[in-house]
Design brief:
This protein has four helices and 27 strands. By secondary structure, the chain is an alpha/beta fold.
């Protein structure tokens, strides 16, 4: 944290009704709202605003300029029956927005940490379970639920009420529609929606908004057709054919590597 603790006297940004553990650290420019509880080994970075009646239970590091809204519960024990009180933590990157009644659990002994990146938006009532990894610039809409060990790549967007099964991955720049049931990996750059979830092409609008060139988008669309729309080839053979046609660009290489690294299989 970049700021030193305030010298002497009460912290000017902590409401008198808030409870802050002596082992917590709140940056002098941070604020903590009425009725909030900040537990041991919590660090709250410069400029961060913690709203009213927020619980940050323990062992949590919040970056700078974050916004945590009313009723959120962070750094709570993992909801894993194997958890036996071992020390684990929650890490939240800078400029992340956590809206009302979100719940973010700490990690378990499996990885030791749940991590949410920078510039993330978690809308109201989102649940982030133990050992999740959420990248930067991710948007998770209202009441989406992430099971344990879920990984969400940078710039991905999850619609409201989406449910992601434990150990699933959502690739970078992917778009998941609202109310989707995700039980396998969703490759980067693609769109998926439904119950059961299925692919619905390339996230063209999202990619263009983020500065991807038309040539790059065209290459990703061609790769999507070859890999997922080849009737005569299964997934592995289709990827081999694509690579045999010439070295893929960095985005397509990333798509191929993601699919080959999948342990749960990918949605098609």
């Amino acid at each position: 944290m970049s700021e030193e603790p305030a010298a002497g006297g009460p912290h000017p940004g902590i409401h008198p009704t808030a409870i802050v553990d002596p082992g917590a650290w709140v940056a002098p420019s941070a604020t903590v709202g009425p009725g909030s509880v900040i537990g041991p080994a919590v660090q709250i970075g410069a400029g961060t605003r913690v709203g009213s009646h927020v619980l940050i239970q323990r062992d949590t590091r919040v970056g700078e300029d974050c916004r945590i809204s009313h009723g959120a519960a962070l750094g709570t024990d993992p909801q894993d029956l194997k958890y036996e009180g071992e020390p684990t933590r929650l890490e939240i990157g800078s400029r992340t927005v956590i809206r009302e009644f979100c719940t973010l659990n700490r990690g378990t002994a499996a990885t030791g940490v749940t991590r949410v990146g920078a510039d993330v938006v978690l809308m109201a009532s989102v649940h982030v379970a133990h050992d999740c990894r959420i990248g930067d610039h991710v948007i998770v809409a209202n009441a989406a639920q992430l099971g344990g060990h879920v990984e969400i790549g940078d710039w991905a967007v999850l619609g409201g009420l989406a449910g992601v099964h434990q150990f699933c991955r959502v690739g970078a720049h992917a778009l998941v529609g609202g109310c989707s049931r995700v039980t396998q990996d969703i490759p980067p750059f693609l769109m998926a929606v439904g119950n059961p979830c299925a692919l619905h092409g390339v996230n063209v609008v999202g990619l263009r908004r983020r500065g991807f060139t038309d040539d790059t988008v065209t290459e990703i669309r061609r790769a999507h057709r070859t890999i997922f729309r080849s009737r005569e080839l299964h997934l592995g053979r289709a990827m081999d054919r694509l690579e045999a046609e010439g070295p893929p660009g960095p985005e397509v290489a990333r798509l191929l590597a993601f699919i080959r690294a999948s342990r749960r299989g990918v949605i098609t």
